[in-house]
Amino acid sequence: MTQLVALSGSLRRESFNTALANAFAELAPAGVSVEVFTPAGVPLYDADLEAAEGLPEAVEVLKERIMSADGMILVTPEYNQGVPGVLKNTVDWLSRPPADIKRVFGDRPLALCGASAGRGGSRAAQYAWLPTLRALGVRLWNGGQLYLPAAGELMGDDGRLVDNDMRERVEGFVRGFAEFSGHG
Length: 184
Ligand SMILES: Cc1cc2nc3c(=O)[nH]c(=O)nc-3n(C[C@H](O)[C@H](O)[C@H](O)COP(=O)(O)O)c2cc1C
Fold this sequence. Notes:
By secondary structure, the protein is an alpha/beta fold. It has one domain (2-180): Flavodoxin domain (Rossmann fold), CATH 3.40.50. Helices cover 41% and strands 16% of the residues. Strands 1, 2, 3, 4, 5 and 6 form a 6-stranded parallel sheet that branches. Helix 6 links the parallel strand 4 (109-115) and strand 5. Helix 1 (16-27) crosses helix 7 (164-180). The longest helix is centred in the last third of the chain and has 17 residues, at 164-180. The protein is globular, with a radius of gyration of 16 Å. Bound molecules: flavin mononucleotide (FMN). Flavin mononucleotide binds at residues 10, 12, 15-17, 77-81, 116-118, 120.
């Protein structure tokens, strides 16, 4: 079994990015599971809070799930052509303490993708993530690219990804990344 974690960077109930993360779980090939997370429950990073209480529960749980997964999919919204603070904040917490960075991110297969309301489909945000991912030492999968432009038009009334062409691309993306992650 290949286990993947998909982290959507949005707290919005009808988030396009969470819909994309859920589509990975739905369309993953046999033998591949995708567990979906969002930044829910993750407070703003505060070094004083960390010193007094350690990592928040939501961060500990996510760290554990990432460490036991074969790979991670970062599903990023785009804010002002950059990374959304909510997701960057979560990744920053996940990088604490520095002694754990290698265990959480080091050499971990990571796929980058995203959805946005605009025509770029999160392209600018995905590029903006690259310096951070490099700093964390992940093994970035470059075998596929996935952008969901005008994402609202790809979703059904129930908030699921329904566009057939995009569902096929999502299916190919998760298949390719699962293979890269080791078991496929
Ligand atoms: C502060 C802010 C900045 C945004 N900037 C962009 C942008 O640069 N490009 C874009 O395509 N959409 C932009 N949007 C629109 C988002 O793509 C849209 O809100 C989308 O629904 C966010 O993803 P979500 O549905 O997963 O929450 C922005 C939204 C916000 C709130």
